[in-house]
Amino acid sequence: MPNTVGMAAQLAGQSLRFGWYFALNRALDWRTDRLGKTPRYRPSRPVPSQRELLADQAQLLMSDALAVRDGLYPPMDDAAASPLRHLARVWAMFADLPQAYARRADKDATTAKAEAAAVGVPEYYAQDFHFQTGGYLTEGSAQLYDVQVETLFMGAAGPMRRTAFAPIGEYMRGRDQRKATLIDVACGTGRFLRQVRLAYPAMTLKGVDLSRAYLGEAARQLDGLRGAELIEAPAERMPLEDASADIATSIFLYHELPPDVRRQVTAEVARVLKPGGLFVFIDSLQMGDKPGWDGLLEAFPHRFHEPYYRHYSTDDLDGMFMAAGLEADMTSTPFLSKLMVRRKR
Ligand SMILES: C[S@@+](CC[C@H](N)C(=O)[O-])C[C@H]1O[C@@H](n2cnc3c(N)ncnc32)[C@H](O)[C@@H]1O
Predict the structure, then answer these.
(1) For the whole prediction, is pTM greater than 0.85?
(2) Topology of 157-344 in CATH?
């Protein structure tokens, strides 16, 4: 029976969420303009109108709600943080803006390298990605990350992650979730793992990430639910057995990796997957995916510290996956993301 009530609740919740993050997005832009030290970058390629962006986002939210109606997966449950804690984080995001903004003037400035947690992590990793104070290495950054990302995507980061559910659901049809293992590669603060746990209560879940602070936040996301094994390790050398996973996911990781590390991580994903296993990749759109939006991708690394994004935006992901033995299943481009589903040979 269609879950119409679930769909209505999902749509209402998502609309409220969108309104809130849209307002934060505008407020952050306004505040940044007041700081006004660097001129805004004008891309040479076309950018979408506000209307096109919102229409595409509405389509994403609608398809998520329809999947809930059809019982394909549960409604989004984003309630791991209390409203008060959420507001405190929003406040902290605005409070951090002046120092993050000041670092824009000096592309090489980084607070991450000075953190104690930077000892032993790869050189490319100890940077202030997005201009986050402390990079990925501090509790403060882990607490702000989700608010920052949802503000950037106007509440669409969660729904973009959830597009992984359709291929996972298809793969799991007829399989016993108690015997299945999913690894979320670079799980960050665990937002996706939480959604997977709600959809698959009996599946074995593992999350790998280099940031202890982000893994701590991920553990809190899973509070009250059956947990996941959270592993502090580089994605290019995961301490996991060969052919031990049925499903690997990787969300918003690859654009932050140097080209050679992207390839090492892909080889690792192929190594840990069982033959026939599923790889679900979600990251930014690439140049040419939506030609009328290319200007957004051109402008992104001017606005945020994203040293590897430009290379990512034209990298041959298909060729890279193929070379690692991950064969094409499907590719689509929900809103600002690229969803690539691959199967291990
Ligand atoms: C943009 S965040 C994405 C996090 C999460 N997947 C999400 O959907 O929000 C990038 C994450 O990748 C992690 N990361 C970056 N390079 C890594 C590496 N080489 N090995 C493991 N984790 C890495 C960071 O610590 C951070 O948590």
Answers:
(1) yes
(2) Rossmann fold (3.40.50)
